[in-house]
Write a structure and sequence with these properties.
Elements (H helix, E strand, L loop, with lengths): L10 H8 L10 H7 L1 H13 L2 H24 L7 H18 L7 H19 L16 H17 L5 H26 L3
């Protein structure tokens, strides 16, 4: 298999950093997963109102917590049966809230296309599991990539206003090779030998 494209693999470097936080081993991964809804809400509300520094803080907090829950589950042997569900659900809710918060700033048609493409990319990440395949995190428009783009855009917007429709266009455009890569990799893994 080709190496993953996108930010997904960077989580391991972030985990090494988070693992140095005193007392981190006492936290429960499912609680951390649910807690990630708080910075997600902060990011969405801040984006809706144009509070750009708080968008950056909210997305960075969400990213840290969504990496930390996996660290706790895997490194400290705290996996639970409901863990993968609780890991994924707050991220999906956070994505919807964040992208809907673009409505005051971007063409609503592009926001709708962004929501649709993000949904398709996310489905293609987890769908292989139904057939016994591996999750497909690869591609330049995976979940961490999309919110990182919004984080960088918000940071830039602090100093230089621009049309957020172009952020939507960028993410939708990056979704095309992401969809193709995820389908190709799944077919290669699950198809006839």
């Amino acid at each position: 298999m080709s190496p993953d494209i996108g930010l997904y693999q960077t989580k391991y470097a972030v985990r090494r950093w988070l693992d140095h936080i005193p007392g981190v081993e006492r936290l429960q991964p499912n609680h951390v997963s649910v807690a990630s809804l708080a910075p997600s809400a902060l990011a969405a509300v801040a984006l809706w109102y144009g509070w750009w520094p708080l968008v950056v803080v909210g997305i960075a907090g969400r990213m840290a917590l969504t990496v930390m829950d996996g660290l706790l589950a895997e490194a400290y042997d705290k996996k639970t049966r409901i863990g993968p569900y609780l890991n994924r659900l707050p991220q999906e809710i956070g994505d919807i809230a964040l992208f809907l918060a673009l409505i005051p700033w971007a063409d609503v048609r592009w926001v709708a296309l962004l929501l649709a493409s993000a949904w398709l990319v996310n489905v293609l990440a987890v769908l292989p599991g139904i057939a016994g395949g591996s999750p497909q995190p690869a591609g330049p428009a995976g979940q961490p990539d999309r919110i990182a783009i919004v984080l960088v855009a918000a940071a830039v917007h602090i100093f230089m206003p621009f049309d957020w429709t172009w952020v939507c266009v960028l993410i939708v455009a990056l979704s095309v090779p992401t969809v193709a890569l995820r389908i190709t990799r799944t077919v290669r893994e699950l198809g006839p030998a």
